[in-house]
Amino acid sequence: MEPGLAVLILAAGESKRLGTAKQLLKFHSYTLLEHVIQNARAVSEKIFVVLGAHAESIAKKTDLSGCQLVANANWQNGMGSSIAAGVQSITDNTPDCKEILVLLTDQPKVSRELLTCLVDTHHHKSNLITACNYGSTYGVPAIFDLALFSDLKALKGDKGAKSIIKSHFSKTNFIYFPEGHIDIDTQDDLRHLK
């Protein structure tokens, strides 16, 4: 466990293309959101979950024990607004936080081993960011240093954390995560996963 590390899980999306709340889809014996939370517990006790669309239903049907919930009233404005709301809540409630690990709900192949590797790499190769690369792209899961908290809080609309990684590319460590491109956006994605 890293005392200076907080985990931010983004779970505010509407899942419009899927037609149902992806946060509540079953993956093995957990929902997708519970799966992410279980993995996050391997690296930190400070777990913040941003809810927006379907918040009431998710809160009722998900084991969120030990997590701090962040309500994003502006969830319709996109992922950037959820990151900004989450980072603001972390800085308000966890003054000793030195780094934030950002996770999505719909990357089912994220594992405890991957998150532990991210944390270890971030601490052994001091840089502002440690992110994942998959295929020809890169992004979250990613750890952001304290120096970038203000940049994260300034995000708006659909502009996510990838834009910050791009801005600080030369100060970013990368971990190869070949299954990082697997996410759940449509019923076809879900069928393929199962």
How do you describe this structure in short?
Helices cover 32% and strands 24% of the residues. The protein has helices at 32-40, 55-61, 79-93, 112-124, 149-153, 162-167, 187-193, and strands at residues 5-11, 26-27, 30-31, 47-51, 67-71, 99-104, 129-134, 137-145, 172-176.
**What value does the Rg take, in angstroms?**
15 Å
Q: What is the general shape?
A: globular
**Proportion in helices:** 25-40%
- Give a short account of the largest sheet: 7 strands, mixed
Percent of residues in β-strands: 15-25%
Distance between the termini: 32 Å
Indicate the low-confidence ranges by residue numbers: none
The number of helices is: 7
The beta-strand count equals 9
| Element-level helix/strand string | EEEHEHEHEHEEHHEH
Overall residue-averaged pLDDT value: 90
- As laid out across the biggest beta sheet, the strand order is 5-4-1-6-8-7-9
Please identify the structural class as seen in this structure. Answer: alpha/beta
Primary descriptors:
two-stranded antiparallel ribbon, single chain, 9 strands, 194 residues, 7 helices, alpha/beta
Describe the structure.
This protein is of the alpha/beta class and 194 residues long. The protein is built from seven helices and nine strands; from the N terminus they run E-E-E-H-E-H-E-H-E-H-E-E-H-H-E-H. It has helices spanning 32-40, 55-61, 79-93, 112-124, 149-153, 162-167, 187-193, and strands spanning 5-11, 26-27, 30-31, 47-51, 67-71, 99-104, 129-134, 137-145, 172-176. Strands 5-4-1-6-8-7-9 form a seven-stranded mixed β-sheet, sandwiched between helices. The chain has a two-stranded antiparallel sheet with strand order 2-3. Strand 2 (26-27) and strand 3 form a beta hairpin.
